[in-house]
Specification:
Elements: H1 11-17, E1 28-35, E2 41-44, E3 47-54, H2 55-67, E4 72-78, H3 97-108, E5 113-118, E6 131-133, E7 136-138, H4 143-156, E8 160-163, H5 170-180, E9 186-193, H6 200-206, H7 227-238, E10 242-246, H8 252-261, E11 267-271, H9 273-284, H10 290-304, E12 308-311, H11 314-319
Helix pairs in contact: 2-3, 3-4, 4-5, 8-10
């Protein structure tokens, strides 16, 4: 009989045999929703303690985050409905909301690593991630617009552009555009992004729900086992620097397989809005202890192979000393 309980007798023994190192503040990428205006901080109803910030108050919050040791942020732009059109024109203007936010962050916090989401869904009147031909999402005509959006973010000072539209060839198009301009901005690819029900609160936060249909023709089917790894491999061949799996907890198997197949590429996992809200709401209802359930969930993501984690809980995780 093997006696495994000897490995668990005390906290000290359990710590000694732990296979996963503690998650550090620098292991997080903290997401922000940015809006127009001044002095604006709007709590998102479906995501407790997560806010939309105007640029001035965004800087104030980043100051708090940086003092905690979190040095990476991911920006999502949220614009008024009146500013959206079928082509998502506001997404790729030199003075776009996100370009202004990047410049403001870099002017005040040059040490902060800025990631920007590159997708049209928050800027199109129809809410889809690509341009339309009737109700069909057209892949190839979308690519130049994604490349231009990434280019403008890079010119503004973004350290990483993170294309999330799941258009075939988007990494190649963006890489070519950046290289042509001799820009050293790196790419974090949303390589394995699944058509998931866990995105619900995000679409409320970003105002990016599609006006018709869904995104199953371009985001991945959750029933597939190999396509995620194949998508990641394709993005690597097209020139990405880092790779991502999204959502995180339901897709630990993909994180595990890809992190081991492509060890030279940092693996990022996105603990998405639905994962966050589910755990927060469950804790509020007394179903489980908030701190313990987040530590367990985030540790599981790290155990699967994530080098970095995008999480709305990052700030509180560090504040609580977890």
């Amino acid at each position: 009989m093997k006696r495994f309980r000897e490995l668990r007798k005390t906290q000290e023994i359990r710590d000694n045999y732990a296979d996963v190192a503690p998650i550090l503040p620098s292991d997080f990428i903290y997401p922000y929703f940015v809006i127009e205006g001044e002095g604006v901080k709007e709590e998102i109803g479906t995501m407790k303690d997560v806010y939309r910030f105007s640029i001035d108050l965004l800087l104030k919050d980043i100051d708090e985050v940086s003092l905690l040791g979190i040095d990476k942020v991911l920006l999502f732009g949220v614009i008024p409905e009146a500013d959206k059109d079928e082509q998502g024109t506001a997404a790729y203007q030199p003075d776009s909301l996100i370009c202004r936010a990047i410049r403001a962050i870099k002017a005040r916090f040059p040490q902060i690593v800025v990631f920007t989401d590159v997708c049209l869904c928050g800027y199109t009147s129809h809410g889809h991630c690509g341009l339309l031909d009737c109700h069909n999402i057209e892949n190839d005509i979308t690519l130049p617009l994604l490349a231009e959006m990434a280019f403008q973010h890079a010119l503004a000072g973004a350290d990483f552009v993170a294309p999330s539209a799941m258009m075939d060839g988007q990494i190649e198009a963006i890489r070519r555009r950046l290289n042509t301009a001799n820009l050293s901005t790196r790419i974090l690819a949303y390589s394995a992004k699944y058509a998931s029900a866990y995105y619900g609160p995000f679409r409320d936060a970003a105002g990016s729900a599609p006006s018709f249909g869904d995104r199953k023709t371009y985001q991945m089917d959750y029933r597939t086992m190999n396509q995620g790894v194949e998508e990641i491999e394709a993005d690597i061949e097209e020139g990405t620097d880092w790779i991502m799996v999204k959502p995180a907890l339901p897709y630990l198997d993909i994180i595990y397989r890809a992190s081991r197949k492509f060890p030279a590429y940092p693996m990022v996992a996105y603990q998405v809005s639905g994962e966050y809200s589910m755990l927060i709401n469950g804790a509020q209802q007394g179903l489980f202890d908030e701190k313990r359930v987040f530590v367990e969930s985030l540790t599981a993501i790290r155990r699967a192979g994530a080098a970095l984690i995008i999480s709305y809980y990052a700030k509180r995780y560090v504040q609580y000393g977890l």
